[in-house]
Specification:
By secondary structure, this protein is of the alpha+beta class. The chain has two domains: 103 residues, Pseudouridine synthase I, catalytic domain, N-terminal subdomain (Alpha-Beta Plaits, 2-Layer Sandwich); 133 residues, Alpha-Beta Plaits, CATH 3.30.70.660. Strands 1, 2, 3, 4, 5, 6, 7, 8, 9 and 10 form a ten-stranded mixed beta sheet that branches. A hairpin with a 2-residue loop joins strand 8 and strand 9. The chain is globular and about 60 Å long. The termini are far apart. This is tRNA pseudouridine synthase A.
C-alpha cells in the first residue's frame, strides 16, 4: 500500500462542491472514478479543504492510498484522460503513510477576485465576482487590519457550519486594487463554512460606504451572523494554496496562483 498526494485545479462552476453526493455532480465524484481507472481498484480520496458549489481551486491537495504500482506520470497524465474538462491533476507525489491532506496542513489560502465596474463580465462568467458601483479600497484595507489574529468568527459563520468551534487563527487578510479588479487574500489555519464569502460581503459593504472600517471589529465582538451582510457570491472564490511543513517537500508551497487571468494586466 502506498500513499499518493495530488494537486488539483478545477473550475467550480461545473460542480456542486467537492464532497461526494448521491447525484454524482461533485469534484470528488469525478476524481475517484478517474483514479480507479488507473489503479484498477476503488480509490477513496481526502482533500485539504472542501469547497462549496461554484467555488474554484488552483491548488487543492488530495491524498489517497492504493496497492497499485504506477509511475507518478500515470497519476497525472493518465488520470487526466479520465477527467472532465473542468478539473485537472497538476502534480503527483508519493508521501509517507502519516501524511494527511487535511490534518497535516498548516494553513489554507484563498483568493477572491472581484470585478469592480458597471458591467459584469461575459467572458469570465462564473469565474469572478462582480460589483457594479465603485468601491473604496482604502476603507476596505483599513477594515482588514482588524481581522488577523485568533478570533471567534461566529458573525461570519454559515448557519449550517458543522465546525466544533468558531475560533480560527486568521493570519492574512488583505485587499488591493489592480485597475478594475479587486483582490482579497485570506490565510488561516482553517476556515468556517462560508467564512470568506461572508467576510468579503462585509468588506464590500464597507467599500460602498455602508459602514466605517471599524464596523468589522464590532461584528467580530457581537458574534451574531444575523447582524452581518448576506453571503457573497461564490463565483470569484479560489482555494489558492495549502501550506505544509517543509519535511513533506511538496510543490507549490506558499504560492498564490489564482487566478491565472487578469485581463489588462501585463
Amino acid at each position: 500500500m502506498v500513499r499518493i498526494a495530488l494537486c488539483l485545479e478545477y473550475c467550480g462552476s461545473g460542480f456542486e462542491g467537492w464532497q461526494t453526493q448521491p447525484h454524482g455532480r461533485t469534484v470528488q465524484d469525478a476524481l475517484e472514478p478517474a483514479l480507479a481507472a488507473i489503479a484498477g481498484e476503488p480509490v477513496a480520496t481526502v482533500c485539504a479543504g472542501r469547497t462549496d458549489t461554484g467555488v474554484h481551486a488552483s491548488t487543492q491537495v488530495v491524498h489517497f492510498d492504493t496497492t497499485a504500482n504506477r509511475p507518478l506520470s500515470a497519476w497525472v497524465r493518465g488520470v487526466n484522460t479520465h477527467l472532465p474538462a473542468g478539473v485537472v491533476v497538476t502534480w503527483a507525489q508519493e508521501v509517507a503513510e502519516d501524511f494527511h491532506a487535511r490534518f497535516s496542513a498548516l494553513s489554507r489560502r484563498y483568493r477572491y477576485v472581484l470585478l469592480n465596474r458597471p458591467m459584469r463580465s461575459a467572458l469570465l462568467h462564473g469565474r469572478v465576482g462582480w460589483h457594479h458601483a465603485a468601491l473604496d479600497v482604502e476603507a476596505m484595507h483599513a477594515a482588514c487590519a482588524f481581522l488577523p489574529g485568533i478570533h471567534d468568527f461566529s458573525a461570519f459563520r454559515a448557519a449550517q457550519c458543522q465546525a466544533a468551534s468558531p475560533v480560527r487563527d486568521l493570519r492574512v487578510a488583505q485587499v488591493e486594487r489592480r485597475g478594475e479588479w479587486i483582490l482579497f487574500d485570506f490565510e488561516a489555519n482553517a476556515f468556517l463554512h462560508h467564512m470568506i464569502r461572508n467576510l468579503v460581503g462585509a468588506l464590500v459593504d464597507i467599500g460602498k460606504g455602508g459602514h466605517s472600517p471599524g464596523w468589522i471589529q464590532e461584528l467580530l465582538a457581537m458574534r451574531d451572523r444575523r447582524l452581518a451582510p448576506p453571503t457573497f457570491s461564490p463565483d470569484g472564490l479560489y482555494l489558492a494554496g495549502v501550506h505544509y511543513p517543509d519535511r513533506w517537500n511538496l510543490p507549490d508551497q506558499g504560492r498564490i496562483i489564482a487566478p491565472l487571468f487578469l485581463p489588462g494586466e501585463g
